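pasting for the record
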Amino acid sequence: MSTQVVTRFAPSPTGYLHIGGARTALFNWLYARGRGGKFLLRIEDTDRERSTPEATQAILKGMDWLGLDHDGEVVSQFERADRHAEVALQLLAEGKAYKCFATQEEIQAFREAARAEGKSTLYRSPWRDADPATFPDAPYVVRIKAPRDGETIIRDQVQGDVTIRNDQLDDMILLRSDGTPVYMLAVVVDDHDMGVTHAIRGDDHLMNAARQQMVYDAMGWDVPVWAHIPLIHGPDGKKLSKRHGALGVEEYQAMGYPAAGMRNYLARLGWSHGDDEFFTDAQAKEWFDLSGIGKSPARFDFKKLENLCGQHLASSDDAAVLHELLAFRKVTGQKELSEEKNILLSKAIYCLKGGAKTFPQLIEKAEFVFADRPIQPDQKAAKNLDDVSRGILKELTPQLQNASWTRDELEATATQFAEAQGLKFGKLAGPIRAALAGRAATPSVFDMMLVLGQEETLARLTDAAA
């Protein structure tokens, strides 16, 4: 087996990239990236009726948004069907597989008879050791010869050793009667050919591992390190489903969660590193290991997700926040900003990102950037613009005209003015917020003044005073 770690994410393109799949991709990405290995992407599109190009695009877009870059080209499982069949025919030639001519009616009759007698319904084909001279001229499937005695042990890094009696395993079909390979064969061949060393996937695949291990053993191939991770449950402890809210990764992007916060939260969903809750990508890559994955299903919690997203917004580089904010506006169909507004927004990010947990919350705080004169105050802000407040703003404006436009100078000027008026600064801040943003909840009035600049600030104050 290669000394370099190689992991893979292998979704089926039958729908969007759901949150459980995204976490599986993340775990594989972290494990490979933290060890200087490769992270590969394979689209398991053998189900031609349900696989769609749109679903493939949704998966790729979801991965791109989450920042989970993969190595090499995307592999299509369907396009490798000839290679899968080649392996099945090799096993047939080596006597490790056989042609089975049993019809569906014969298999059904066998199972009904076994059920009536209280015996196992596991199908035992009479063609397993049949003389080729007796083969009929009829359609057949190719089945692997499963071991009949002993046990198969799945040495799983999360679940521990899982033992399955071999008399519970059937002779799995490798090729259908039309010559097409089955999914269970394709997975093994693809993982082997792609050099996958660690198969990290949902524990709904755990029982598949025993059947897939038969193919590895028959071909004399190294079995990858198995790690079957528990599924994600909703807050009520039941399997995550549509009733719990958004499921597709794109929906979380459209709801305005930053990708870094989403990665952090998904990493903590079923894996832990001591008591650490908030961490960077670099820390996650360094810390992530299979021993930290729990055996029990994790519960999805929107409050924890929001709290982590808030911490990531606050600690992220301004340029990165701006880039993702503009991408959020685009995917949610908001109109493109003018160059002037883009410049203002980039200047404002530093005072917008603290306290916001999502991009909609950040945009709400940025209303003073998006608004144009004359500012139309909302109902709450308008209460701060009565006749007395307008008079105060009228007197304040000339004082600010003579101020040098630095934070210290602006704070000193406003504080001295408030004291001269016998006001607490809070009484002055409300009308200024209403004048500059038309909102009651905004960044600091001094931050807004610095972002807007002297000319625009004075113009908005003058409008409000009038």
